[in-house]
Amino acid sequence: MSDILSLNRQAWNRQSTDATSPWVQPVDTATIERARQGDWQVILTPNKVVPRTWFADIRDQDVLGLASGGGQQVPTLAAAGARLTSFDNAEEQLAKDRMVADREGLSIAIEQGDMADLSRFDDACFDLIFHPVANVFSGRHTPGVAGVLSRAAPGRSFVIGFHEPLLLPF
Predict the structure, then answer these.
(1) 33-46 pLDDT, tens per residue?
(2) Domain 2-167 classified CATH 1.10.630.10?
């Protein structure tokens, strides 16, 4: 599995330099300002905004951005008032979260690692786990989901996006 982890890290680090890729473009200051005013949106799948009704009030909530680095969802949720931890495998994607956080004065904990191994986090420590379409980049789905569920506080949310893997070869 470490080969998959390494290959995906390298691929996303390369992807992070692609100015045309929508998944590596950090949000702008206007997006952060709107989020601070309560007007925010995030995506889980390539083309659809997550309905706000899927979220409770995230202000002062502990949120894990699981494999969602890139300077988009994590800074937006932080600007909306959540306490964010960005956990991603790719250094360059995490650097984009850090860059937006520094630029906008946001507090975001940055952690690098394998999305399938959340052992560094205590059980029931997050109110929301936000995991966009990244599960196709892990070689170990079942341990990852079990680990995620144990990190969500009882009665809290795990929001995950999926992608049809059959589309990838084509």
Answers:
(1) 999 999 999 987 77
(2) no
